[in-house]
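Q: Hi! New to this. If I give you a protein sequence and the SMILES for zinc ion, can you show me the bound structure?
A: Yes, paste them in.
Q: Okay, here:
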Amino acid sequence: MPELPEVQALAGDLRARLDGRAIARLDVVAFAALKTFDPAPTALQGLFVEGVARHGKFLDVEAGGLHLVVHLARGGWIRWRDKLPSAPPRPGKSPLAARLVLDDGSGLDITEMGTQKRLAIYVVRDPRDVPGITRLGPDPLSDAFTVDAFAAILAAAGRAQIKGVLRDQAVIAGIGNAYSDEILHAAKMSPFKPAAMTDEDVRRLYGALATTLRDAAERSDGLAMSELKGEKKSGLRVHGRAGQPCPICGDTIREVSFADSALQYCPTCQTAGKPLADRRLSRLLK
Ligand SMILES: [Zn+2]
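A: Thanks. Here is the predicted structure of the protein with zinc ion bound:
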């Protein structure tokens, strides 16, 4: 799933490609992905793109006072096409969910892989008409996200596990499963640690959060959307790397599995060498 750094880079790439172009039409192929009906997608026809923004993990293409908002979710992606086929796409088994056609015949395909269909597309007059955007907590790359603001957020979260707090979009916008693993590894902190922590721990985590996200955003900046997934994967130190050596200490990276996700961590760096209980694994061993 693309998170803050990738969505930020996607917005930058799209801005360069879309700015000043007019929208010929939006073809919706996967109708369940379109979450709004007024304004209709046809309302975008003929409007000039005025900007592309990011809200948390949401992409926002502004055109003529309307907003095409896309949440890529787990399996969603955007592919640039220099030349789109002239015939409108038909619903079928392809991953194509929607296609934005521009006045010069170029445009983009919004796709979704996998069986869990969670990609969401909205056509709205104001991005705040999207419930997921209204609910967003502060953006961790904004000036307002100070160490004091972060300390207040963690204190309010109390005994909740820090891993869940970091990826709760209503608490902090834009961090998902991958970067929360990376941030906690950089902070040498257990994913199960309660959110309310000492000032010293807050500062260490704040520093790790800022560095991890800014580094990833910088690495992704200026890349074309086709290059972003590979860049994200190669930049990760623990996430998705169970069984591989930790790049800091050499210990084997371990994993805790949940119903539909998993977290990865380094025991030596993060949990004083003790492996965390993995309920799925323990069940298998019984
Ligand atoms: Zn380590």
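A: The CA atoms of residues 248 and 269 lie 8 Å apart. Let me know if you'd like me to explain how to read the tokens.
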